[in-house]
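Case study 2.
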Amino acid sequence: MLTTLLRKTVAKKKEPFLFKAYDNNVDFAAIPAEIGLYIHIPFCRTLCPYCPYNKTLYDKNRALAYQKALLAELAIMQKHLQGKRITSIYIGGGTPTLMLTELQQVLAWIRANLVFHGDVGIEVYPQDIDKDLIAQIKDMGINLVSIGVQTFNDQHLHFLGRRYSGNEARRSIELIKAADFDCVDIDIMFNLPNQTWEDIEHDICTCYSYAIEQLSIYPLILFPLTALPRRVKQEKLRTFNSLQEYGLLRRIEGLSAQMQYGKTSIWTYG
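Prediction:
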């Protein structure tokens, strides 16, 4: 009964759930000759109240078990990837850098057993960035870095449950930029509660001032069953409506063009 109610709450529909069995729901024959590989690392030190993604608190033993499962899944997929070429690997999360040692072995397995020639990207948490971490990810052959800054505004960072200040975020970017990666991306969120256009503009211009290769900017989405929607409702916090959000996207596009950054996807500029 409880499970049924939870499913209906998440799906926002009253119809019964229908499950259809498949012998094989992946058409391996349809895998193209060139593919990208995404590796998800679900571990975090703390859980941000807005995040809907698959994540859990870090535990060393669980991380080791997860690495074992990753390697087992790769071994299963190996036969289906014969003759295929992996052109990129992206490691997201979660906080992937919590498993760098384990990931080093995973990447070594991929290079030894699959055909891989291309870029390797990873997401990094600003507070974790130091010279030792940078040296380790460079030694692993990682050449693309995405820094999850979200905002440089200290009040907004606190609201989002981030564990660093705007100044700490700036220092982390400076360290990454000095390391000469092929691509540095910064993640920024907009339409945060009580945020103004001037706040958004400041975040964007700060990012571009570092001559980054890419900006990823996307609106805060108040996902059901995360802590943030309840707080926004209880405290009657202001956010932009859908029409205003569309206007913000147009202004972001215009500001980016002024800074010589063109739109490369719905959320990215480079």
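The first helix runs from residue 2 to 11.
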